[in-house]
Design goal:
- With 79 residues, this protein is of the alpha+beta class.
- 19% of the residues lie in helices and 29% in strands.
- The protein has two helices and four strands.
- It has a four-stranded antiparallel sheet with strand order 1-2-3-4.
- Strand 1 and strand 2 form a beta hairpin.
- The longest helix has 9 residues.
Length: 79
């Protein structure tokens, strides 16, 4: 892709984020995208953080992935 060409990230999945729509462009030239996490939360995320893999989801997405893990087995420690 040529440098400076606009990215179309709508509907693309980046880790636990899904691109919803282009939000704004900062004065520094950074493009922001509205993204929706697997948990349903929405947030503005920098496009370069999505494409580089630096941002893979929000805190709620990561927290929910830990709560779905099975509990370790309980061992009887009596002698």
């Amino acid at each position: 892709m040529p440098r400076g060409a606009p990215l179309e990230l709508t509907g693309r999945i980046f880790g636990r984020w899904t691109g919803v729509e282009k939000a704004t462009e900062r004065q520094s030239g950074t493009t922001m995208w509205w993204c929706r996490g697997e948990c349903g939360a929405t947030k503005n995320v920098q496009a370069n953080n999505l494409t580089s893999g630096r941002s893979g989801g929000c805190r709620r997405c990561y927290a929910s992935s830990f709560t779905n893990w099975p509990s370790p087995p309980v061992r009887d420690l009596t002698i």
